[in-house]
């Protein structure tokens, strides 16, 4: 059921500084910033040969990233995104196995214009998991 890693997301307190570190320090290609108000985040993607790193900055006061950065002022790894072929089938299989889906359980459109879901970190060894249908 599970496919490749689509991206690893890192919450950052200073997006420009993080972009500069990846561009100048690591020689990476970084996408233009994109605002996702429904998810409460501004994102850029660091393009890698085999995957992507998503840099996340809070957008709006109710952003889920605000609390995360309060606990991790230097930033930190926020979630891992796995690709799945059929997100509703994946959700149904996971919930049948006892895993919890965040929110109302219905997929939302993510940064790549594709359906995404988030799974409770307590069910995945303390790591927030995103599923993206590709
Ligand atoms: Co993500």
User: Which hetero compounds are present in the coordinates?
Assistant: cobalt (II) ion
Distance from N terminus to C terminus (CA atoms, Å) equals 12 Å
Rounded average pLDDT: 96
Beta-strand portion reads: 35-45%
Give the CATH level 1 class.
Answer: Alpha Beta
Number of strands: 9
C-alpha-based Rg, rounded: 15 Å
What does this structure look like?
By secondary structure, the chain is α+β, with helices and mostly antiparallel strands. Helices cover 22% and strands 38% of the residues. Strands 1, 2, 3, 4, 5, 6, 7, 8 and 9 form a nine-stranded mixed β-sheet that branches. The mean pLDDT is 96.
From the structure above, extract its key features.
134 residues, alpha+beta, 2,3-Dihydroxybiphenyl 1,2-Dioxygenase, domain 1, nine-stranded mixed sheet, 3 helices, 9 strands, 22% helix, 38% strand, globular, binds cobalt (II) ion
Summarize the structure.
The protein has 134 residues and is of the alpha+beta class. It has helices spanning 15-25, 64-71, 87-96, and strands spanning 2-11, 29-30, 34-36, 41-47, 52-58, 76-84, 108-109, 115-119, 128-133.
Give the helices and strands, then pairings.
Blueprint: E1 2-11, H1 15-25, E2 29-30, E3 34-36, E4 41-47, E5 52-58, H2 64-71, E6 76-84, H3 87-96, E7 108-109, E8 115-119, E9 128-133
Parallel strand pairs: 1-5, 6-9
Antiparallel strand pairs: 1-6, 2-4, 3-4, 4-5, 7-8, 8-9
Bound molecules: cobalt (II) ion (CO).
């Amino acid at each position: 059921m599970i496919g490749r890693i689509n991206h690893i997301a890192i919450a950052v307190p200073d997006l420009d500084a993080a972009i500069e570190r990846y561009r100048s320090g690591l020689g990476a290609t970084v996408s233009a910033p994109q605002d996702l108000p429904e998810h409460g985040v501004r994102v850029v993607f660091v393009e890698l040969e085999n995957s992507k790193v998503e840099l996340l900055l809070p957008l709006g006061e109710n952003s889920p990233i605000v609390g995360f950065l309060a606990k991790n002022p230097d930033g930190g790894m926020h979630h891992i995104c796995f690709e799945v072929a059929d997100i509703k089938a994946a959700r149904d299989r996971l919930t049948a196995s006892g895993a919890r889906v965040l929110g109302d359980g219905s997929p939302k459109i993510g940064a790549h214009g594709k359906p995404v879901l988030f799974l409770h970190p307590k069910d995945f060894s303390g790591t927030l998991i995103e599923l993206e249908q590709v």
